[in-house]
């Protein structure tokens, strides 16, 4: 499982993405479709049309990482939003998403968080 710093933000690209794209193609999508910087050190998630495959693009000081997960059965729960608008999520939500939980169907309890 991934261990992420609280400073790392996680963005989902809504809609379907052609996962045959390489690192350069995914980083271009981050720049053009999400209007974000792929070299920021944040995580960018992409899902295919069927919903059974997921790629995560991340920059790590010296180069890019691509993590790829293919489900043998079922699909990833993906938020419905305007195409091109990135959806931000917490690292705890990413862990739920990767383990098969539909984050949209869960209810977050009121919790104290310090706002910077």
Helix coverage percent: 10-25%
Radius of gyration: 14 Å
* Proportion of beta-strand residues: 25-35%
Structural class: alpha+beta
Q: Which segments are poorly predicted (pLDDT under 50) over 5 or more consecutive residues?
A: none
Number of helices: 2
From the N-terminal CA to the C-terminal CA, the straight-line distance is: 28 Å
- Which series of helices and strands comes N to C? EHEEEEH
Please indicate the count of domains: 1
Query: Sheet with the most strands?
Result: 5 strands, mixed
Number of strands: 5
Shape: globular
Mean pLDDT: 86
Could you give the order of strands across the largest sheet? 4-3-2-1-5
Description:
The chain has one domain (10-105). The radius of gyration is 14 Å and the shape is globular. With 116 residues, the chain is α+β, with helices and mostly antiparallel strands. The protein has two helices and five strands; from the N terminus they run E-H-E-E-E-E-H. The model has no long low-confidence stretch (mean pLDDT 86). The protein has a five-stranded mixed sheet.
């Amino acid at each position: 499982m991934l261990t992420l710093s609280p400073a790392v933000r996680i963005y989902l690209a809504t809609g379907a993405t052609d996962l045959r794209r390489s690192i350069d193609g995914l980083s271009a999508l981050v720049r053009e479709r999400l209007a974000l910087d792929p070299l920021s050190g944040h995580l960018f998630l992409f899902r295919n049309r069927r919903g059974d495959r997921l790629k995560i693009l991340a920059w790590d000081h010296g180069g890019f990482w691509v993590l790829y997960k293919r489900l043998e059965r079922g699909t990833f729960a993906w938020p419905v939003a305007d195409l091109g608008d990135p959806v931000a999520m917490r690292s705890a939500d990413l862990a739920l998403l990767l383990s098969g939980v539909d984050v949209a169907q869960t209810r977050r309890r009121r919790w104290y968080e310090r706002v910077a």
